[in-house]
Structures are given as structure tokens and as C-alpha cells.
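Dear colleague,

Following up on yesterday's call, I've attached the two folding results inline so they're easy to grep. Please treat them as preliminary; we haven't cross-checked anything against experimental data yet. The first protein's sequence and C-alpha cells come first.
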Amino acid sequence: MLALIQRVTQASVQVDGQVIGQIGPGLLALVGVQPGDGPAQVERMTRKLLGYRVFADDAGKMNLSLTDVQGGLLLVSQFTLAADTSAGMRPGFSTAAVPHEAEATFSQLLHACRQAHAGGVESGRFGAHMVVGLVNDGPVTFLLRV
């Protein structure tokens, strides 16, 4: 499982012109599910998303987590994140989980994050064409792998 996280001052996701998820300050996480991802990866990614220290403390150092600052979390499924780009000029998708497996795993991640985080967890819509808007704060962007 992969998650490209971006520290944001705000982020939103739209489907068919309607906002279906939005947050204020927090993290936008674009999530790619790979074959074999399951409960262990969901648990580790949940811990990383909520505990990764990317927010500044009083001294200006990245020492605070999403849980510490009670920021919002916007999870957006993105199978292209798991693409194989190592050869040629076109991505391959054999390194991404098949849709029904990816949707089940993404749903587990969403549920786990909602259970563990009181700061609010929003989501895009799996498999939909989404328009994601964000204001990256920093910019601060990290690729998490579990």
C-alpha cells in the first residue's frame, strides 16, 4: 500500500461537480492499493497516516502528527499511484490491485481511520472520476509505503 500525503491548509474532492469530501488544515492522502494488501497493511498505514510527524511544533520543527493537531484527513483512492513506470513510455498497472480487492482494502482503511481519528476523515468515491483541489502547505509532500 502506498499513500502520497500532502500537508494542506484545505482540500476537497468533487464528483460530477458536487463536493463529496473536504477538509481544512490537515492531510490529503492519495492511496494506491497493491496486490496482497490486507489487514496488516491497513493497520500500518492507519498508524502512519495518523502518526507521521509533518506538522510544526512551537519551535518550527516537524514534530507533530495529524492526531496531535487534530487536523482533517481526506483519503482519495488512486490506482495510478501503484503503476509500474520502470520501462517504456506508458504505465503498467499489474502492480495495482484489481478493482474489487482495492475497493475492499481502501474501504477498510477509511473505516480504520474514521475509528481512530477524532479530527474528521473525509473521502473521495472509489472508481469515480474525481476532481481534487488542494492548497499544499509548505509544500510538504511524502510518499509512505507499508
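Below is the second protein, in the same order (sequence, then structure):
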Amino acid sequence: MSLTQTQIENVQIDYGIVYTNYGETDAAKLGPSRGGGEFSVDVKIRDIEYDGANGKTKGMQAVEELNASLKVTILDTSIKTLALAMPYATLAGDGSTTPYSLTCKSTDLGVLQDTSYLKNATMFCKTIKGDYRKITLYNALHEGKFDLKAKPKGEGEIELELNAHWDALDDTKDLYKIETIASITA
């Protein structure tokens, strides 16, 4: 079976380039990374059972839950990057006149603040054609465990799994968006 030129041009190649708050004034490229990035969508579909059904039936299924995430392994151990992996901790300092510090206190327990969430996490994946797939997760937050290992003859790695979150105040907002763009603008 032959391929079409369009199919060939749409093959994704190379690693993913990941930004936090892409398109915003505080946009930042994450890196260096190891192993590229991984975008996942997890959906729970319920089959509506009825007497006489032969199995899964078109029109008799309901989407109950939809979640999206972006995984990336980061080698940058700056305090600001560590704060992405610990959104419940308190980040202090401005990074220039006062160095950043990250602390965790009993006052950090409880409901996460809106400021804990990124406006977006965006990954760009290049295609053979030379354009990019832009994958954007909205209201992104790392919810997983934090590990940082210092080991001989190796680098510390931070596993980030940024999860998209629905907006409780506006249920018409996107959870994620995938689009094709010609180039990445810094």
C-alpha cells in the first residue's frame, strides 16, 4: 500500500519543545529536557446497557470524564522549575535582587490557589513538512510526587506531569487544544 505525500508530510519527528504560559508575558521555555514530551488524553466512556444489547452500541455511550496531561522530564533544577513540581509550596524572592527560595509550611495545606495553576502548558512537535503541532493544556498543574536524585555520574531529573484542569467558573473554556502552526514564535 502506497502512502500519500500528505501522510508523509504529517509524520511527527524529533522531540517536543515545551513552554509554560506560552503567549503570555511570563512565558518560559522548559529545558533542558530528556526524552521529549508526552501528551495524553484519558477518557472514561460509559456504555448504556439495555435489555437485548449485543455489546457496545453506537448512540448508547456517554463520555463521563475527560482528562489531559503533558509529561516531560526536566534537568533544570532552578528554584523556579522546582516550584513547578511543587505547586503547593511557597516561592519567595524575585530572582534578581532577592534570590528565590522554596518552602513548605502548614499554611500551604488546603485549597490550592489560582496562582498555583499555569495559564497553559504548550508543547510543539515538528513534522516532516516543517510545520508544527501545537498542543496546549489550559490551567495546568503538576499533581504528582516530587523526586530529585543526586547521583554520581548522572544528572538530576524532575518528572513533571502537567494536568489540564477544567474552569469551574466557565464550562465553555477549552481543556486542551491541538492545532497546526507554521513556526514557533518566542
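For the second protein, one point worth flagging: The first helix runs from residue 5 to 9.

Best wishes,
A.L.
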